[in-house]
Amino acid sequence: xxxxxxxxxxxxxxxxxxxxxxxxxxxxxxxxxxxxxxxxxxxxxxxxxxxxxxxxxxxxxxxxxxxxxxxxxxxxxxxxxxxxxxxxxxxxxxxxxxxxxxxxxxxxxxxxxxxxxxxxxxxxxxxxxxxxxxxxxxxxxxxxxxxxxxxxxxxxxxxxxxxxxxxxxxxxxxxxxxxxxxxxxxxxxxxxxxxxxxxxxxxxxxxxxxxxxxxxxxxxxxxxxxxxxxxxxxxxxxxxxxxxxxxxxxxxxxxxxxxxxxxxxxxxxxxxxxxxxxxxxxxxxxxxxxxxxxxxxxxxxxxxx
Length: 305
Known about the structure:
Elements: H1 3-6, H2 9-21, H3 31-44, E1 54-60, E2 63-69, E3 75-80, H4 94-104, E4 107-112, H5 123-138, E5 142-148, H6 150-161, E6 171-177, H7 189-192, H8 201-212, E7 237-244, H9 248-260, E8 265-274, H10 285-302
Parallel strand pairs: 3-4, 3-5, 5-6, 6-7, 7-8
Antiparallel strand pairs: 1-2, 2-4
Helix pairs in contact: 4-10, 5-6
């Protein structure tokens, strides 16, 4: 795949800055080193929180969360950060969550779920469900589940797990940003973009195995939402993928599964963008426009539209 033809100068500049801090072969380093790389990367692209957003940390029944509020929220967003279930936390996605809060007016609850390899599946899923249940129990009104990459996996798994519970009707939508949903890895985007900048298929395998702590479970939608056999009863869903990403087809396949079950789902495959492009939203026009679509999608779903 010739990415020089697919990516513009702004995205290529983003890749160069990213690679200088988080090397493409990062999975060959220790987890401690990967976390240092990732923390440096997050700091490099960090921006100040928008004015008017109040932030505080709290405890959601044993799961650390960070709350963002601006005025009187009309809905609550429960956000799960990316990082392959290995890196990331409340600080890594702080400005992203603050901007979602400012852009929608909604409260944002960012969940600091446990990470692998210290904690393997289902620890991450258990923490995500706990945070979502806590938000549903603490706040009135609509709840939107959202997350990027690994966090998109968790948001989808939580939406599927909470179907049929008393508060499920209050989950008015989910927004999944370049999610990894456990799709078939021998075809499509996993092959076409196996060596994509930002994330390779080999990286996906590394994160899958370290998360599982051994062989990946089969037929377990809490690990891989696309392994579910029933996609009915899910909230309206917006999936936004990066076209130059091995995970791109997961978004399409999840959309198709929900639609086949009679649900509402939309998939946007962002041309000319790579995995992790949220951090490029201030240096890439394409990333900035996509982030605006993400915020608008969250706002619409929080209104039940």
